[in-house]
Amino acid sequence: MSRFGWVMLGAIVVVVGGFVSMLSFGTGGVVVPAAPAPKTPGVAGGSAALVMPVAGYPVAKLHRDWGDPREGGKRQHQGLDIMAPAGTPVVAAFGGTIEKLFDSERGGHTLYIRSPDQRWSLYYAHLQGYAPGLAEGQRVRQGQVVGYVGDSGNAGPGNTHLHFAVHWMRAGDGWYQGEPVDPYPLLAGKTASR
């Protein structure tokens, strides 16, 4: 086998091993194994799991839209849109620190939560508003209400949903940086198909 072949085989073994190490048998519910990112064992340091960021939203209703064209094909969608009624509570998918509360033209009312190990960031966009008293630098627990589903930013009036994104962060990355990771398999417990 060529050197390239051995390198590819090694990469495949590492990725498959990462997926297998994140399997959890018999847990049920909406808590699923953490991120299948090849750079680190998982969200928040390996054993943590994400919870559904929209309160009461069933996993079976998730629709994968990662990579779908946006703005007439100028960019690709790098998150997961979770459609829900305006005002539905949005919760911290893992415990961490509110790194940034930010209003932007595209995302509207947004917030970023950084994991305790600083390697992961969660991005929430199109919020109707933040939970009362929420502030940058505040620690939040997994499942704590941090905001409410809305249609702010470029979501369009009445198109209420949460745009949920996950980023793998390198040392020194700011809240607006990081490598996008498809959140669908993290929440749905399925492997990526695209």
TrEMBL record:
GO terms for biological process: proteolysis. Residues 76-183 form the M23ase beta-sheet core domain. Keywords: Hydrolase, Membrane, Metal-binding, Metalloprotease, Protease, Transmembrane, Transmembrane helix, Zinc. The chain crosses the membrane at residues 7-31, 43-60. InterPro entries: Cell_wall_metabolism_enzyme, Dup_hybrid_motif, M23ase_b-sheet_dom. Its cofactor is Zn(2+). It holds the Pfam family Peptidase_M23. One of its GO terms (molecular function) is metal ion binding. This is Peptidase M23. It comes from the Bacteria.
